[in-house]
Specification:
Elements: E1 9-11, H1 19-24, E2 29-32, H2 47-59, E3 62-66, H3 71-77, E4 84-86, H4 95-104, E5 111-115, H5 118-128, E6 131-135, H6 148-162
Parallel strand pairs: 1-6, 2-3, 2-5, 3-4, 5-6
The structure holds magnesium ion.
């Protein structure tokens, strides 16, 4: 029913993904959202995230950050990360998803998108024909009030979780120790 909003996979975090497996399955480039996907909204990168990018790139992946945030924020984030990026991306518009694929110089079918929001990140990726992974959004304080949009996301995710057909479309890409 909400097919265009469903991710190919829904996982705990960017650290629970088996990137080697994705690479051996033919993916060559990964587009990441930043805020609440890699770090809590507005935060600087962490040692773990810097390390994760090095690991992913050592496997052979190209990377690109696709953020609706501004250049100042993105530049601050990539102080220790060597990656392509597009800021003010206006997700879910497909223009910059397609530009991202072009910048990485790979095919759409070899591209993966990872983000935390259904209505911007995943919707845009699906419209662009790019495989998508949804991660649980990073919440520092679990008591923190979540917005209306997150409430609606929860409802959609409940439908998604009941619909096996749309889940695990990339096939066993969660790291073993996280299963
Ligand atoms: Mg986000």
């Amino acid at each position: 029913m909400f097919k265009i909003l469903y991710p190919y996979e829904y996982v705990e975090s960017v650290f629970s993904i088996d990137y080697e497996k994705l690479y051996s399955n033919g993916f060559k480039g990964i587009i990441f959202d930043i805020d609440n996907t890699l770090v809590h909204h507005g935060d600087d990168s962490t040692k773990e995230i810097d390390e994760l990018f090095r690991t992913i790139q050592n496997i052979g992946f190209k990377t690109l950050l696709l953020s609706n945030n501004n250049e100042e924020r993105v530049k601050r984030f990539i102080r220790n990360i060597d990656t392509l990026y597009i800021c003010d991306a206006e997700k879910p518009k497909i223009t910059n998803y397609l530009k991202a694929v072009e910048m990485m110089n790979i095919k759409k079918e070899e591209t993966l998108f990872i983000g935390d929001q259904i209505f911007t990140d995943i919707y845009g990726a699906n419209k662009s024909g790019i495989a998508s992974i949804l991660v649980k959004f990073i919440q520092i304080n679990p008591e923190e009030k979540i917005g209306k949009r997150r409430e609606i996301e929860k409802i959609i995710l409940n439908f998604y979780k009941k619909n096996k057909y749309f889940q695990n479309r990339l096939g066993n890409i969660v790291k073993k120790e996280d299963k």
